[in-house]
Amino acid sequence: MFIKRLPDFQHHAPASLSEALGLLTRHGGKAEVYAGGTDLLVAMKKREKTPEHLIDLKKIGEMKGIHPDGKKGVRIGALTTLGELERSTLIQEQFTILWDAVTMMASPQVRSLGTLGGNLCSAVPSADTAPPLIALGASVKMVEPRGEREVLLEDFFRGPKESVLQKNELMKEVFIPQPSDFASGKYIKLMRREAMDLALVGVAACLTMESRGKICKDARIALGAVAPTPIRVPQAEEALINREIDEVRAKEAGKAASVVCRPIGDIRSSLAYRCSMVEVLTKRAILEAYRRIR
Ligand SMILES: Cc1cc2nc3c(=O)[nH]c(=O)nc-3n(C[C@H](O)[C@H](O)[C@H](O)COP(=O)(O)OP(=O)(O)OC[C@H]3O[C@@H](n4cnc5c(N)ncnc54)[C@H](O)[C@@H]3O)c2cc1C
After folding, report:
1. CA 191 to CA 202: how far, in whole Å?
2. Which H or E element spans position 171?
3. How far does the centroid of ligand 1 lie from the alpha carbon of residue 162, in Å?
4. 112 pocket-lining for ligand 1 (C-beta < 6 Å)
5. Residue with the nearest Cα to atom 2 of ligand 1?
6. Which end of the chain is more exposed for a tag (fewer CB within 10 A), N or C?
7. What is the pTM (predicted TM-score) of this model?
8. Is 90 exceeded by the pLDDT of residue 191?
9. What's the CA gap between 80 and 67, in Å, rounded?
């Protein structure tokens, strides 16, 4: 098989956020940043992207690490690798739905390079960290030379491979608010095979229950790979809020989610199959989230 070499480019390895932003401003549309490179270098080999300047973010300490923020939640640097998330007991125990997702992504080798920020900034509809983070109510902080701004992740995506991130901006970190003691979630990823595959359908369900009893105080449902962007599904959430969680409610929410989704049919799966799996997996994710709380 003919393997294409990377096109020529000039490599930069800034050691600070301000240096990286300066390089981005100087080289404008001729530059691309990268973290793990597991998406970008593939796109460059395919000549989908041919930047003249490649800015490696890996030396920037300010964009790394998992930082608990008291009772408020956790800040995760955009350069945190999927492998670091997988090995974090904080993520596994308190943000389990995100842990569900990263442990099902790619391979150990890719997870040791690929980053959380890279997964979100690629903005593909099947990005596995997006549905759990939307269901957790996460926001992302973006920086540019004149300042920074924060947006809810559910407002970040604009279309396939498109987001609100501007050419002169970098994603610095992801913030996840602390879930209540009576909350939990579940992410389910449907793949054609058990490992190393992109999601045909991804469903994330987070429930917050009243301290005692079966009444659901809050619900957040998000889907991946079944619309031009990862989406939140308020219609499914409404079927659960202030109700008892049981098979009937979960099924109702699943139906609502399958009505809202707008998947494409392609060589990997038909449109009808994806819609019916949204219904089945949304119900399953809700019941599993409920089981985890109890
Ligand atoms: C074999 C294989 C299997 C895979 N399996 C999965 C899977 O199961 N699920 C899944 O969701 N993905 C999968 N991927 C895709 C990829 O590994 C992930 O999306 C990964 O998290 C990308 O992170 P990265 O750091 O390598 O991104 P990079 O390739 O470095 O960057 C991706 C894009 O984001 C931009 N970018 C990166 N970081 C920032 C930042 N901080 N600020 C602004 N822009 C930034 C880059 O300019 C580029 O456009 C797979 C890839 C491969 C090669």
Report:
1. 9
2. strand 170-177
3. 14
4. no
5. 106
6. N
7. 0.96
8. no
9. 11
